[in-house]
Amino acid sequence: MVDVGDDAPDFAASLVTDDIEPFRLADRVGDGPIVLAFFPAAFSSTCTDEMRTIRDEFDRFPEACTVLGVSTDLPHALAAYREEYDLPFGLVADPDHRAIEAYDAIADFDHYGVDTVARRSVFVIDADGTVAYRWLADEHGQEPDYAAVADAASEVVVPN
């Protein structure tokens, strides 16, 4: 289990912004804090509430902060999701489960017939690549303390 003080595990996936492009976490470390907000499924109710809350509170994050939503959805589904909800941050498509496995952020939706999705969780990574904050949902439908996440990102030292 990845915990505060651990080196942030690297992973490769697809990044959905205005385009879809290859993404490697290690390429982003060093630019400022990174917030990884893992969520189970685009277009589901709690996930949409979470992503819209992050959108609505986006200005609480430091300017140098990279905020990324991470799910096991396919890139084109995340592109439609990002557009529909006007999300100002990128979404990471992790259909191969590399990110969720690296962060042990795995849940199942057996009642929906889906074996593996992202467990709702948030990690803040500092500019040195160290996990500075971790939150994991204990129950279905639980959302993070958004103020605590923004505060954790603000407390991370931003390089000059």
TrEMBL record:
Domain Thioredoxin residue range list: 2-158
Nucleus keyword on record: no
Q: Name one GO molecular function term.
A: oxidoreductase activity
Keywords assigned: Oxidoreductase, Redox-active center
**Where's the active site on this chain?**
47 (cysteine sulfenic acid (-soh) intermediate)
Q: Which SUPFAM superfamilies match?
A: Thioredoxin-like
Q: Which domain of life is it from?
A: Archaea
**Is Oxidoreductase set as a keyword in this record?**
yes
Q: What is this protein called?
A: Peroxiredoxin
Q: Which classification does the entry list for the species?
A: Archaea, Methanobacteriati, Methanobacteriota, Stenosarchaea group, Halobacteria
